[in-house]
């Protein structure tokens, strides 16, 4: 009976393969983007949590999105910067699984938040008199808990699916962070269960969310174009503007990444890695900017805070 080789308990993240000599230059936009994401989302959280004028149901959802953005960027960028600056790519198996879990948990939660925000816009446009009575603070709290519990219970079995594997093929990961299948493919065992379960989660969460968001906006657009007043149509569409921008920004790079992985077999590996990092970093960096520009109430509060600080100085 053949002896099974020992399982790796430590892995090494390479960062951007074939671009090691450019790591310092690549780190500059990473660092700037992370600082913008951290400051922008922290400011957004501070404004929504401290200003009593921002009490409409949509603002708690924006608050959840900003909090998720902080977690998502903090879980990926510092690790990448450690690799780029100090070649500190060593990571234990347990830490790798935890990192993967937090990244995917946050990503799935953000997808759920965007779906609920589409429902929020549908109620605001189609049933404006009942908006605040339908979306009460109690219901918003229950929705938030449901979103985060859905992500947790969907992802939790993957921890056991990964822990059962014996990683004997390789322990060098050509990436800046840990992924489910990216880690599982180094196992000596059969990983078909991991592949199918990962695919099922993707279909039951992110893909289903996209379909429901699309359906929500079909109903919203139908209601908007039945409005008699042109001004009312403009206001209704403007209400959805920031949310649509965030949706495109969140799902767009992910869809593009999947397409390049499926059909771009001749694309260099570092391009795939760069695209996956864009998926993790672009939404946290740009979401607060979009809401600051497109949402008048948030814009006014930002100006007021900055103006007050300058005046006090």
Automatic annotation (TrEMBL):
Which Pfam families does the record associate with it? 7tm_4
Q: Where in the cell is it found?
A: Membrane
Q: Which residues form the G-protein coupled receptors family 1 profile domain?
A: 40-291
Q: Where are the transmembrane segments?
A: 24-49, 61-85, 97-119, 131-153, 195-224, 236-259, 271-293
- InterPro entries linked to this entry: GPCR_Rhodpsn, GPCR_Rhodpsn_7TM, Olfact_rcpt, OR51/52/56-like
GO function terms (MF aspect): G protein-coupled receptor activity; olfactory receptor activity
Which keywords are on file for this protein? G-protein coupled receptor, Membrane, Olfaction, Receptor, Sensory transduction, Transducer, Transmembrane, Transmembrane helix
Identify the domain of life: Eukaryota
Kindly report the protein's main subcellular placement as a broad class.
membrane
Membrane topology designation:
Multi-pass membrane protein
Cellular-component GO terms for this entry: plasma membrane
Report what the protein is called: G-protein coupled receptors family 1 profile domain-containing protein
Q: Which gene encodes it?
A: LOC106830177
């Amino acid at each position: 009976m053949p002896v099974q080789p020992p399982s790796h308990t430590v892995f090494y993240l390479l960062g951007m393969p074939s671009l090691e000599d450019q790591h310092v230059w690549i780190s500059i936009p990473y660092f700037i983007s992370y600082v913008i994401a951290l400051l922008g989302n922290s400011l957004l959280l501070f404004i929504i949590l401290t200003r009593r004028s921002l009490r409409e149901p949509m603002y708690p959802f924006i608050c959840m999105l900003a909090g998720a953005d902080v977690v998502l960027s903090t879980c990926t960028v510092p690790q990448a910067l450690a690799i780029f600056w100090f070649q500190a790519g060593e990571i234990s198996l347990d830490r790798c699984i935890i990192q993967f879990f937090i990244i995917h948990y946050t990503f799935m939660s953000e997808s759920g938040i965007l779906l609920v925000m589409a429902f929020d816009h549908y109620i605001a446009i189609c049933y404006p008199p009942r908006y605040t009575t339908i979306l009460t603070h109690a219901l918003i709290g229950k929705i938030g808990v449901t979103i985060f519990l859905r992500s947790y219970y969907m992802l939790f079995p993957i921890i056991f699916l990964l822990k059962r594997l014996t990683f004997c093929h390789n322990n060098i990961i050509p990436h800046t962070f840990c992924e489910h299948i990216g880690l599982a493919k180094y196992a000596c065992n059969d990983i078909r269960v991991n592949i199918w379960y990962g695919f099922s989660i993707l279909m039951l969460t992110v893909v289903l969310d996209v379909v429901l968001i699309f359906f929500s906006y079909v109903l919203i657009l139908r209601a908007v174009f039945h409005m008699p007043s042109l001004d009312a149509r403009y206001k209704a569409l403007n209400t959805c503007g920031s949310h649509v921008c965030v949706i495109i920004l969140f799902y767009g790079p992910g869809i593009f990444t999947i397409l390049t992985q499926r059909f771009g077999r001749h694309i260099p590996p570092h391009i795939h890695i760069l695209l996956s990092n864009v998926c993790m970093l672009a939404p946290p960096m740009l979401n607060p900017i979009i809401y600051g520009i497109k949402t008048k109430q948030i814009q006014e509060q930002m100006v007021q805070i900055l103006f007050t600080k300058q005046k006090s100085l």
